[in-house]
Amino acid sequence: MTYQTKPLSAGLHFLATPIGNARDITLRALDILASADVLAAEDTRSLRKLMDIHGVPLNGRHIYPYHDHNGGQMRPRLIELMEEGKSVAYASEAGTPLVADPGFALCREALSRDIPVTSAPGPSAMIAALTISGLPSDRFLFAGFPPSSQGARLKFFSSFADVPATLGFYESPKRVHRTLGELCDTLGETRQAALCRELTKRFEEVRKGTLRELEESLRDAPVKGEIVLLIDRAERVEVSEADLETALAEALETMTVKDAAADVAARYGLKKRDVYQMALAIKEG
């Protein structure tokens, strides 16, 4: 037995769960799972399986489901249990609660009622990816999952163009090629990036290169599994408006407006749409 059963104080106890390898669970997390009066989970089947693997018995306790679709109904019940003096342990489906996870509203509600909230830290896909990506880790911004609609996605990606930090996104394997193409258009093709998938699992892989190189690598070879996409901060290349116009004018001698804008935008790390508008004005003028 690797866990200890001991009294837990009343309140909300967040605990991080493995993102792939079940042995990444912490001893403290196992202690909480064994000792909490009440268990809640984003995915009850995943938590039950994790407890079975590590030999933590339910001992007659019920695991309450708490996720995006039932939060409004389940939250009052969990808060009521805490106010009755119960210790409630909440586990995300994988990784750290509140990181791309529905636990935020539960945390905020508990704090608003002066209910103690604690956290047993552990695995996080974002941090795991950052540590093996080779990209700067002194300053980073986790942006979560991109929106689904086209207009919202482009606006979303463009908002990070000037952020002086490594950017981190979660993305599905079905959309990641599309995402890389949109990032090329909004952040520039030459940004260094790392595509990290299946972290801590058997087929863990990290692909590194520019955004365009990664996009090209997925055109005919789609990937599977959970993905974290990391992008280096923009390199500042000082270019005057006059120099930019000269570069565009030269490019337009042999290229279309679209290709000239893409070429110059990539060369200077600028937004493709802004450069396209300038190229269009030069062509028409």
UniProtKB/TrEMBL annotation:
<keyword id="KW-0698">rRNA processing</keyword>
<dbReference type="InterPro" id="IPR008189">
    <property type="entry name" value="rRNA_ssu_MeTfrase_I"/>
</dbReference>
<keyword id="KW-0949">S-adenosyl-L-methionine</keyword>
<dbReference type="GO" id="GO:0005737">
    <property type="term" value="C:cytoplasm"/>
</dbReference>
<keyword id="KW-0963">Cytoplasm</keyword>
<feature type="domain" description="Tetrapyrrole methylase">
    <location>
        <begin position="12"/>
        <end position="214"/>
    </location>
</feature>
<comment type="function">
    <text>Catalyzes the 2'-O-methylation of the ribose of cytidine 1402 (C1402) in 16S rRNA.</text>
</comment>
<feature type="domain" description="RsmI HTH">
    <location>
        <begin position="239"/>
        <end position="283"/>
    </location>
</feature>
<dbReference type="InterPro" id="IPR014776">
    <property type="entry name" value="4pyrrole_Mease_sub2"/>
</dbReference>
<dbReference type="InterPro" id="IPR035996">
    <property type="entry name" value="4pyrrol_Methylase_sf"/>
</dbReference>
<keyword id="KW-0489">Methyltransferase</keyword>
<dbReference type="Pfam" id="PF00590">
    <property type="entry name" value="TP_methylase"/>
</dbReference>
<dbReference type="InterPro" id="IPR053910">
    <property type="entry name" value="RsmI_HTH"/>
</dbReference>
<comment type="similarity">
    <text>Belongs to the methyltransferase superfamily. RsmI family.</text>
</comment>
<dbReference type="InterPro" id="IPR000878">
    <property type="entry name" value="4pyrrol_Mease"/>
</dbReference>
<protein>
    <recommendedName>
        <fullName>Ribosomal RNA small subunit methyltransferase I</fullName>
        <ecNumber>2.1.1.198</ecNumber>
    </recommendedName>
</protein>
<dbReference type="InterPro" id="IPR014777">
    <property type="entry name" value="4pyrrole_Mease_sub1"/>
</dbReference>
<keyword id="KW-0808">Transferase</keyword>
<dbReference type="GO" id="GO:0070677">
    <property type="term" value="F:rRNA (cytosine-2'-O-)-methyltransferase activity"/>
</dbReference>
<dbReference type="Pfam" id="PF23016">
    <property type="entry name" value="RsmI_C"/>
</dbReference>
